[in-house]
Amino acid sequence: MKVRFLSAGDRALVVEFGDRVDRALSERVLRLDAIIRSNPFAGIVETVPTFRSLAVYFDPLLTSRAELQRAIGPLLGRRDHRRGAASLWQVPVCYEGEFAPDLAEVARLTGLTPDEVVALHSGTRFHVYMLGFLPGFPYMGDLPAQLALPRRADPRLRVPAGSISIATSLTAIYPCESPGGWHLIGATPIRMFDPERTEPALFAPGDAVRFHAIDMAAFVSIRQAVENRSYKVESEPVAI
Amino acid sequence: MTPGLSGLKVLAPGLHTTVQDLGRIGYQNVGVPVSGALDGFGLRLANALVGNLQGAAALEILVSGPSFEIAAGKVRVALVGAGASLAIRGERPRTVSEGQSTTLLQGEVVQVVVGRQSACCYLAVEGGIAVPRVLGSASTYVRAGLGGLNGRALQRDAVVPLAIGCASERGELRAPVMPPAPVDRPIRIVLGPQHKYFRKEALTTLLDAEFRVSKDTDRMGMRLDGPLLHHSTGWDIVSDAIATGSIQVPGSGQPILLLADHQTTGGYPKIATVISADLPRLGRCRPADRLRFVAVDPEAAEELCRQAEREFASRIAVLEPVPDSSGLNLGLLYGENLISGVTTGFE
After folding, report:
1. Per-residue pLDDT for B333 more than 50?
2. Which chain B residue has the Cα nearest residue A22?
3. Residue A46 to residue B26, Cβ atoms within 8 A
4. Would you say the C-alpha torsion B274, B279, B281, B282 has a positive or negative sign?
5. What angle do CA B189, B192, B197 make, to 5 degrees?
6. CB contact, 8 Å: A176 with chain B?
């Protein structure tokens, strides 16, 4: 698909690479984001990478859509630039009892056992496509095809903070309590968003994530450590 | 209240009163909405009238106004919002209209009266509101509990902390009265980014029909009543970014116009985006108000943004002293008391 420049009003230029959830497409979005961030032009206010496009917010008092399009066009062909640093995060998840209210149903709908669902989810390395919906809410993929389910027909009014959810080809973590329509298969005690941190969101678009199963006792002790600010989520730099 | 702390004690919070500035910039990539004033020009004018930087934190007041007791020596405030006024009770009851600064004294009680013409107004205080900035902004984002006064709208008995406890000695300022904007002027939009996801008739309807602001309206957005806008190619798109002013259309076909606290991304097609120069008008709308839309091209929208900024700058350039005859000037008031005292002495 040809790259398209779309207007979202007079303050945002959307650079659209496609219309699918797709790793290769995501890499193109993230690479353009990294190029612009490493060398921002006058008048760019901020950029927002999503599954399929990069939104470039600008100030019409300082620049224009036409000027930005002229500046961004030549960057699209660049293959030399690597996107910014990324991390691989190891996220502890309790897939048991009250933390996994939809696990049995997910197992039934997918024809798997609950243990198989957990093994598939915790055995996959996920890519953080984007953050949105709530501060610090990561959209991660891709789920193994056996776990792909539509959203719940009946969304919940209250999904607890830390819930691990799945829907379509994606998995996510709710950073705070919120309404939500995804299937809840576990919960993590770690804090996804903290405005006191320099980088308030734990994950950045382009990061990688692995989940590992913990029991309820470990969940409680990690949550305690998180509250005392003595827990550090395991992570390592990854090559891109 | 704590001795030595200057503030506005909240006697009644109003419907939804929050601390706002010009928004939280630079965190949409991690899902943090911009927030900030629905009517940025209103906030900036209110700040200019009290001598603050235009982007200082002020109170945004929606639909019904709060009342405060002045818990500070002397506080200079300015209210901006068409038709609004301050009703002041105390030793010297008076009413001060919007669009000018005034000074309130310890113990006075002030009620913000929201006018019919604008559902939102701004109360700025000289020196600003002393709340910590969260991610670079004082703006309140209630849904995630960020910013403002503990991340919430004002609550009864809370105290809005002020940066200074004693207003400076100077005359009051007012903005020249603006001719009222024609109410039926259409809201200008740029089509897209996903107008191709809609049937041709949906675009015609958007530009021809009249819509009404529904009761489902808050700082996140307003649902519009009126004809439905039908999609041609399905309504569940792969999520992308949402700009303020986007008109997104979910499966029901009922459009939702997204305002300052909107989510940063979403999965419904966006048929059009309101131009930034007209966003303040949306903030002033209330349920049942009628809206019409007219399309402009992106270049024209950018020029209209620049023009709105120039018009605002020329308005700020001609702030004028409030004439003494208004009876609201403290200097005059003290003068009158003095003369009165001398006269009494002669009798």
Report:
1. no
2. B238
3. yes
4. positive
5. 135
6. yes
Shortest Cα distance, chain B CAs vs residue A216, angstroms: 27
Condensed to tens digits (0 to 9), the pLDDT of residues B6-53 reads: 999 999 999 999 999 999 999 999 999 999 999 999 999 999 999 999
Give the whole-angstrom CA distance, residue B84 versus residue B101. Answer: 13
Q: Cα distance from A77 to chain B (closest Cα, Å)?
A: 22
Task: Evaluate whether A180 touches A160 at the Cβ level (below 8 Å).
Answer: no
Mutation pick from A10, A25, A26, A128 vs chain B, by most beta carbons of B within 10 Å, is A10
pLDDT confidence of residue A48: 98
Can you say whether residue B282 is alpha, beta or left, with left for phi > 0 and alpha for psi between -120 and 50 degrees?
alpha
Say whether B190 and A10 touch across the interface (CB within 8 A).
yes
B310 touches chain A (CB under 8 A): no
Optimal mutation site among B235, B265, B293, interface A, most CBs of chain A within 10 A? B265
ipTM value of the model? 0.95
Is A10 an 8 Å CB contact of chain B?
A: yes
Q: Please state, in angstroms and rounded to a whole number, the distance separating the CA atoms of residues B151 and B18.
A: 9
* A26 near B CB under 8 A: no
| Cα atoms in the Cβ-side hemisphere of radius 13 Å centred on A134 | 20
3-class state of residue B49 by DSSP: helix
Query: Do A118 and A171 form a contact (C-beta atoms < 8 A)?
Result: no
| 3-state secondary structure at position B334 | helix
Q: Percent of chain B scored above 90 by pLDDT?
A: 85
Domains of chain A: 4-77 (3.30.1360.40), 86-238 (2.40.100.10)
| Number of residues assigned to chain A | 240
The encoded tokens of residue B93 equal 């009851």
Exposed (0-12), middle (13-18) or buried (19+): which is B210, by Cβ within 10 Å?
A: middle
Distance of residue B337 Cα from the nearest chain A Cα, in angstroms: 50
CA distances (Å), origin B49, targets A8, A90, A139, A161, B53: 33, 53, 45, 43, 10
Q: Which of A61, A135, A204 sits opposite B144 (nearest CB)?
A: A135
Q: What is the pLDDT of residues B286-296, one digit of tens each?
A: 999 999 999 99
Contact at 8 Å (CB) between B111 and B89? Answer: yes
Q: Cite the beta strand spans of A30-75 per DSSP E.
A: 44-49, 53-58
Helices vs. strands in chain A: H and E counts, helices first: 5, 14
8 Å CB contact of A132 and B265? yes
CB B285 within 8 A of CB B253: no
pTM: 0.92
Domains of chain B: 7-173+319-340 (no CATH), 187-308 (2.40.100.10)
Using CB atoms and an 8 Å cut-off, which of residues 61-80 of chain B contact chain A? none
* Under 8 Å between Cβ of B76 and B162: no
